[in-house]
Design goal:
Blueprint lengths: L11 E6 L15 E2 L2 E2 L1 E9 L10 H7 E2 L2 E10 L5 E6 L11
Antiparallel strand pairs: 1-4, 2-3, 4-6, 5-6, 6-7
Length: 101
Amino acid sequence: MSGHVGWNVPGVAIRLKNYPELDYTSEDHESNFENGERVIKGEVCMKGGIIFKKYLNNPEANNEAFENGWFRSGDVGMIYKDGRLRIFDRIKNIFKLQQGE
């Protein structure tokens, strides 16, 4: 089946964090349905033994990337009823202009 990145790996917990600024929430509204199936959308966060714990000697990056032990990937995804995860957006779409900015 195409269009998704797969299912969760044993030992890793995944949650989707609401991101209301971009209208990605677990609330019931029209954008949370695909092919008649309700899906939950939000920022993909992971926690588990195989997820790295911190950036070495970089507390600023740690504060930005981790929240209560959950690694915030910056990816926006949806989880289907059967557990498949689909990533379809980024929280911060960073691009470089021709001038290098």
